Each structure stands twice: as C-alpha cells, then as structure tokens.
Amino acid sequence: MDTILSNQDPCPTSLLHLSTVFTPLMCPLAMAVLVTLIVLKIRNRSKGVQQTRSLGFAAVAVAGLFGIVIVYGQGEFDAALYQDVEMLCPANGAGTHIGWEYSDLPLRRTLLCSEGNVELVPAWVNPALFALFAAVLGFFAVSLVTWRRGR
After folding, report:
1. Please, are residues 78 and 10 in contact by the beta-carbon 8 Å criterion?
2. Residue 54 needs a FRET pair 20 to 30 A away by CA distance; which of 9, 22, 36, 43 works?
3. Helix 53-80 crosses helix 125-150 at what angle (to 10 degrees)?
4. For residue 27, what are the CA distances in angstroms to 8, 53, 148?
5. Which residues of the chain, if any, have pLDDT below 70?
6. CA 19, CA 84: separation in Å to the nearest integer?
7. How far is CA 125 from the centre of its chain?
8. What is d(CA 130, CA 150) in angstroms, rounded to the nearest whole number?
9. CB neighbour burial string for 38-71, b if at least 16 within 10 angstroms, e if fewer
C-alpha cells in the first residue's frame, strides 16, 4: 500500500491507466473465448460427439474471468469519478484533504482527511473480486479434473 501526502491524484501512478486499457481489451477477449467454448459444445452435441463436462466448466471459468475484469474496472472507474478531491473531505464531514492512500490489490483508494478518511472504491468491489477469483480457480480445477478423467 502506498501513501501520498499531497493533493496529487495517485491514479496516474497506479493501475488506473492500465485498467482503462485492460478492461476494454480483456472483456471482448473473454467473451470471444466464452462464445468459442459454447459453439464447440453445441457443434460437438450436433455431431454426436460424446460430451465432456470439462468444456462447460471451462466456459464458466472464462465467464468468471470476464466478471473479474468488469468488477475491477468498475471499482477503478468509481474511484476515478471524483475529480474535485478538495471538496470531498468537507462534503463527507471529514475536514480538509491531506493526502491519498491506495493499493491495487485489494483495490483501495482512500482520501486522507484531517478528521477521518473517505473511501472512494465501493465496499462491494473487493469481496466480489475475491469471490470471483476463487470461483474461477475452482471451476478451472474441476474442468481440468473432468478433462483428465475423460481421456
């Protein structure tokens, strides 16, 4: 976790610039992989090829990756919406703005104020990220196990 004691926005030095590039690039890529897996499953079914469950589990894992990208991008986007930080501390009854505290994982953007702190990332973002990450790992592992058993 990094702390900046100034009015300078930490976002240019953080992953914000990467997430604005990463999210639009990875969402279509994840969707393309997901659609490809679904098409393969449908094609195999229509040709009478024995279905393996691993393809379905892999599709769910890819959909989870898509969800991770969306949730992380939403958390970064919500934090980046606040342009006038000088007014956020007084508006939340936290005194005057002193600096920033931020980290990229867990996603955190906090305004340090003289009478308290103001969190800019919504509270639901980090639990959702870690739940999705655990689900992706679980579905990917189940996909590998079912694929190995089917060979």
Report:
1. no
2. 22
3. 160
4. 30, 24, 29
5. 1-27, 29-30, 49-52, 81-83, 150-151
6. 21
7. 8
8. 30
9. eeebeeeeeeeeeebebbbbbbbbbbbbbbbbbb
CB neighbour class for 83 (10 Å; exposed up to 12, middle 13-18, buried from 19): exposed
Written as one letter, the residue type at 123 is: A
The answer to whether the pTM exceeds 0.85 is no
Cα(110)–Cα(79) distance, integer angstroms: 9
Q: Show Cβ contacts of residue 53 under 8 Å, excluding neighbours closer than 6 positions.
A: 146, 150
Beta-carbon contacts of residue 114 (< 8 Å; ≥ 6 apart): 89, 94, 95, 96, 98
> Could you report how far apart the first and last alpha carbons of the chain are, in Å?
46
CA distance 102 to 106: 9
H helical segments located in the chain: 16-46, 53-80, 85-91, 125-150
Q: How far apart are CA 108 and CA 116, in angstroms?
A: 16
One-letter identity of residue 28: P
